[in-house]
Amino acid sequence: MSLKKVIIVPDVYDKSTWAEADVDDVLLYLHDQFAPNFPKNARIYHNDIAQSRDVTPENVQQIETLKHLDGRFYVVIYPAYDPFTIAYLIVVAIMAAYSVYTIMTMPKPAAQAAGSSNNELANRTNQARLNGRIPDIFGRVRSYCDLIAQAYSIYIDGIEIEECLMCIGRGYYQILDMRDGETDVANIAGTSVSVYDPFTSIIGEPIYRVGDEFTEFPKYVKKSDSINGQTIERPNNAVLESSNVWFESPNLIKSTGIDFTQYFAATDRVGLSGAIYGIADVNLTGQIMITESKTVIIESTTNIDNPNLFKGLLLTGALVDIVTTAGTPPVSETNTRDVSGQFVVSGVSKTVISGGFHYEIVLSSPELINANWDFVNDDYTITAGAVLNKNSNSISLDDTYTINSLTSNTIALVNPSAINDEWDKLLTLPDQSTSGQDVLVRFDQVSSKYVGWFNFDMPEAEQAVFNFFFPNGLFYQDSKGGVWEEGITVVIEIQSINSDGDPVGAITTINQDIRANNKSQFGRTVYVDLPINGSFRFRLSRTTGTQTGKTQDTCKIKNVYGMAESNIDNYGNVTVVRSRTAATDGALSLKERKLNCLVNRKLPLDGTGALQVTRSAAQALIYNALDDHVGRRSESEIDIAQINAEIEKVNTYFSSSIMSEFNYTIDDDNLSFEEIAGMIASAAFCEPYRFGSLLRLKFEQPQDNSVLLFNHRNKVPKTEKRTYTFGVQKDYDGVELEYTSDEDDARIKYTVPEGITLKNPLKITTSGIRNEAQAKVRAWREWNKLKYKYVSCEFEALDESELLIRNDRILVADNTLVSTQDGEVDTVDGLTLHTSQPCNFETGFMYYAYFQLPDASVDMIQCSAGPDDYSMTLARAPLLPLVVESDRYVKTLYSLVKADEREKQAFMLEELTPQTQMTNTLKASNYDARFYERDHDFI
């Protein structure tokens, strides 16, 4: 079979970016190149790049067709935002689809690693964020450092010492303070913290230090998840398993061939497992449906006799995508709920169907077991585990009992039915006994306990480290009140395991003596060098039972670690924090880790210059655009001078630089650069957009003039729709905006209007705002827009609309009315203009005309009636010559209005969506200067 050539084309206009490969299987090669997801904006062409050669599969049949094609295949990856090409300068808003509300209240994706604690609203702690994005902090933020290695504790002189390796984020930072919770670490005895710049040795010179220096590399450590503070007790191996036993009412266990007296004695407590007789549980497989009426419907090939005898249903992994619809117009929302649990069954009905059986299982008040059942609002088909259990004819005698007396073949228990009422069911069996039923039953002497065996998977392990904890101290007190030294011997057994988790080699046993005269809690760390480096299993016990009364020797296992040497000198472009904390009353004391520091990001000036401490949104945007992991733009694609100039406009307008700050931790690896650019710009009251290939900013401020004029000449006929609102949208009675205080890092909710209790506010959680003035101006702008927006329009406009950016002021003639006067200028004779449409001037009214000028601005001029019905006379000359030549692409457009109706045509663009190759759908609402009336009240 001949090879096929695949050419991947990232940029169809730049052949230097193309990559070729000769392959046997085109689909397998594309899977290897693009897994896990083939780009949504990519197309596959066969032999030539042409629409008629598009073979991108849309279904299984087309995939099969593609498999059998030979020749050459082009995989063209189109840009997500394809720039339009027209004869004049082009401006395309890269955030047209993102409203201020969307950017500021953007939800986190559901399936992703945990977010940085910096952005949490409460309970901020140091945490490991496995597979999470390294935080990118901009501006000034209180950083709760992320763990980048396993934190571990050891005991020195009985005191717990915890060592952590953490990171603040990518890049360089100014460290302003260091706290544990609310307390300065300098005031916590035994605490040492050092902060290291990127590309700096973590045993080198720190940029910030409190306490002792760190002169050794931290250990490479893994922690056993199996240890949770178990008590170390004396072991007893008296465990018995046998199928030669049966149970008789009211309290007897009998056997053949077993001498119970070799294993147990009177008053011993015995645990039974596997003593289940009668009807076994049934695992149902097949299609499962849950209903709003609290019924589970299962179609299965399993035939169950008397299914109505089952009184329990165990659902596992029962995840339901519940759809709710609300609002006007209706908006659907999907939330995943887990409805798993052990439920009470009130009845089961069985119906024979083709190929199997249909079971309807009615649950009794499942919402009392799992509250998520209250959200089930329809019938949903799911995939889950389902087990019918608790059959009324089955008998389960598993539990823990006390032995009253015993002989070689009989055990008499102390009133077992008081512990497990299933013993009463023995009365229904022949001879009131389970004799003749072959069941393997396990007997455990309850006082027999090892901690382990536990497998520990760490191929690099060189040591096993055990932290033993004595919560009541370790001592002996005599009858006269004297306190004396006491000791115990803990037994550590270690054995190597292979890659399958199976034990190999000999068991190593360590008897570790621990002695103390200490009435307070303390701990001891025991280090065990592994006989063979690698994964291992362990178990723990002691040589004597735990004593009570005059001797206190309760011993618990607090932590078990696998440990190896590490020689990692630095962590690249990351600011690293090392901490060592003693568990004194003033420090850790076994509480949650809350080490935090106030930091200010250092960024290279304009992306490439010297590092400087900055909170500027402009510098954050430029840095992200140039970042190889985020924007991946070059300097030639960023209008750095314009971005800085636009931010200076913000500072000048507000007379303060705090209004153009961006202070936030970007930690979401699902955020695109476009979304990040929108967040940064929004915090500074701006919009990002492209001017040709250049990234730019536009400041949203009061606009005295409009950018473009739209009338019937540049609208697609019959596409205009207008909506009038009476009252505030969605009956909002205010705005509730949440931001972070720059003074004490508290989350603050600011509501407008002030002084009233809001019942239905628009809720906004900001990203990047950390000062009061910035937050209040944002809140008032949003509230004023809600108050003063009363008309919305939507229409399809011709291609000059591509010049627009969101929030641009535009003029829109109301072409839903017959009386609208608009058109284009045919000729100019001095100050007299001849028009394409009649101009009607009513006596007693003053008129103004709006003209679309060739520099993308609109001129408004007072005018009066001309010499005929198709003309008007201007009170002054236009700012620029009007375009009337017949060979031009479009002539000057005009709109004629009465003086008192001038503002009715002023709109603010909210959304621009490409409709066809030559048209765009515009959505806009009325423009009102009162949107900005509180802009200068809080500076």
UniProtKB/TrEMBL annotation:
Keywords, alphabetical: Membrane, Transmembrane, Transmembrane helix
All residue ranges annotated as the Tip attachment protein J HDII-ins2 domain in the record: 460-556
Membrane spanning residue stretches: 86-104
Domain of life: Bacteria
Record has Membrane as a keyword: yes
InterPro entries in alphabetical order: GpJ_HDII-ins2
Name of the protein described by the UniProt record: Tip attachment protein J HDII-ins2 domain-containing protein
Protein source organism: Acinetobacter baylyi
